[in-house]
Amino acid sequence: MAPSLWGTSNLFSVQNDASELARIEKALATRYPYENKMVPDIERIADLLDLMGSPHRSYPSIHLTGTNGKTTTARMIDALLREFGVRTGRFTSPHLQSMTERIALDGEPVDVERFANAFDEVAPYVEVVDARHSQRMTFFEVLTGMAFALFADAPIDVGVIEVGLGGRWDATNVVHAPVVVVTSIGLDHVGILGDTVEAIAGEKAGIIHPGATVVCAAQSEGAARVLVERAAAVGARMAREGLEFGVRSRTVAVGGQSLDFAGLGGDYDEIFLPLYGAHQADNAACALAAVEAFFAAEDHGPLDVEVVRAAFAGVRSPGRLEVVRRSPTVLLDGAHNPAGAAALAAAVEESFSFERLVGVLAVLADKDVAGVLEELEPVLTDLVVTANSSPRGMPVGALAEVARDVLGDARVTVAPRLDDAIDRAVGLADASGPGGGVLITGSIVTVGEARTLLGTGS
Q1: Could you tell me which CATH class the domain 322-453 is placed in?
Q2: Other beta carbons within 10 Å of 319
C-alpha cells in the first residue's frame, strides 16, 4: 500500500528538521570553546546585542546561578510564572537530547524551524562581531544571542535565564536582572572557577547587580559570606533560605513529596511536588521565593496558594531522578559531582525501597569521580561502568579502576557501550525479582543518551 500524503509529509518534515538542526550544530561546533571552558570577557556578547538593538532589555529577567539545581529551579520558576498568566522565555544548559531544549517559550522547547530562523537572523551580526575581535564568538555566546533575540521577537513577559558557567564572565551576565537566584554552591569546574568554594562563589556572585533581590539557597559559611559581601557592595537585597524563606515541613508522598513553605509574603501549605528528595524541596522553596520577589509579595502578601499548588503539581524535570521504566524500575539522574551524588543517594534511600540497585555510570574525565562514587556506594549493590559519546568522557578502563578502588572488584562490571551497559544492568536487576532497580547517572550527556536509547522523548 502506498504511504498516505500525511505520512509522506510528516517524514519530509522530520528529515528537514534533522537536516536543519545538523546544519546549525555543525556551525556552532566550529566555535571554540564548546562549553567546557570559559573566555573571561563579555565584550563580544555585549557587542552582538548592541548591534541587534539590545533585545535582552525588552523584558525583565530572573537570572540563576549555582553549582547544582539551576535547571530544575528554572523550570519551577517558569511553571509558577506561567500559572500566573505570564508569558515566559527560558534559557538553560546543557541539553539532554536536542539543542532546541535550551530555548523554551511558554514552557516548551522551540521547534526546529524557529530555532533555525533565530540562528540565521543572528548569523550576520555574529560575523560582524567576529571581525571586530581577536577571539571569535563562542558556541555559548551565539546561543545566548539567539535566545535573547527570539524572546524579544516572541515577545515574552519575563526571561528565566540560567548561566552557562560561573557567572561573572558568563555570556548571560548582561541582563542585570531584578531577581537573582543562587542555588547551592559546591566544588565543580575547579580548573576554571577556582579550587575553593569561596572562589567559586566569587565567580557566581558576579551576576548580582545594584538593586537586585538575591534569592539565596542555603550555603556553606564561606560561600554565604562571599555572596552577602557582594550584595552589600552593590546595594542588593538578600533573601536567604532558612532565614527569610524556606521549607517548613516535608513528607514523602506517592510520586513525590508534600511540602509546606514559609515564603517571603506568607505561608504556603500542602504543596505537592512530583519530584524526589530534600534537594528538590529546597529548589522549590527558592523558585517560589524568586517569583514572590518578582511580584513583590513581601510587600503585598502571599501569592494565590491554589495557583502555586497547580504550578508545582505540573513541574517536570527530565533527567533528575526521573523514572523512565518499570519492572525493573529504571531511574535517570545527571549527578556529576559529589554534592549532586550525595543528594541523589539520599533521595533514593528516602523515596525508593530497592532490594538490589544496579548503577550504570559514565562520566566526564574532569570530574571528581572518586567523590561521586563514594557518595553513591552505600545505595548501589552493583555498578556497571561504561562510556558516553562525549570527547571529554573518561575512558572505561580508567573509570573501572576508580570504581574498583571504591566498591571492590566483585561489585564492578565493565561494558564499553552504554546500550550494552543498560542491558547488563537490567539483567542484574531482574535477577533479584520485583525489588530490583537500575540507576543511570554520572553526566547529563549520559542521561540524555540513555533517554534516547530507552525511547524517552525530550
Answers
A1: alpha beta
A2: 24
Which residues have C-beta within 8 Å of that of residue 290, sequence separation ≥ 6? 62, 73, 77, 179, 181, 215
Domain boundaries, the chain: 17-313, 322-453
Fold of 17-313: UDP-N-acetylmuramoyl-L-alanine:D-glutamate ligase (3.40.1190)
Other beta carbons within 10 angstroms of residue 192's beta carbon come to 16
**Distance, first Cα to last Cα, the chain:** 32
- Here the cell at position 345 is 543517594
Distance CA(193)–CA(38), nearest Å, equals: 9
Nearest-5° Cα angle at 321, 432 to 422:
45
Cα–Cα distance between 181 and 50 in angstroms, integer?
26
Euclidean distance between CA atoms 145 and 2, whole angstroms: 45
Q: Are 380 and 346 in contact (CB under 8 A)?
A: no
Encode the chain (458 residues) as per-residue pLDDT tens digits.
344 444 555 655 667 888 999 999 999 988 876 555 567 789 999 999 999 999 999 999 999 999 999 999 999 999 999 999 999 999 999 999 999 999 999 999 999 999 999 999 999 999 999 999 999 999 999 999 999 999 999 999 999 999 998 889 999 999 999 999 999 997 665 556 667 889 999 999 999 999 999 999 999 999 999 999 999 999 999 999 999 999 999 999 999 999 999 999 999 999 999 999 999 999 999 999 999 999 998 888 999 999 999 999 999 999 999 999 998 999 999 999 999 999 999 999 999 999 999 999 999 998 999 999 999 999 999 999 999 999 889 999 999 999 999 999 999 999 999 999 999 999 999 998 889 999 999 999 999 999 999 988 75
Instruction: Give the CA distances from residue 221 to residues 61, 152, 418, 448, in Å, rounded to whole numbers and listed in that order.
Output: 28, 39, 40, 34
Q: Which three cell numbers stand for residue 320?
A: 533528575
Q: 17-313 and 322-453: same fold? A: no
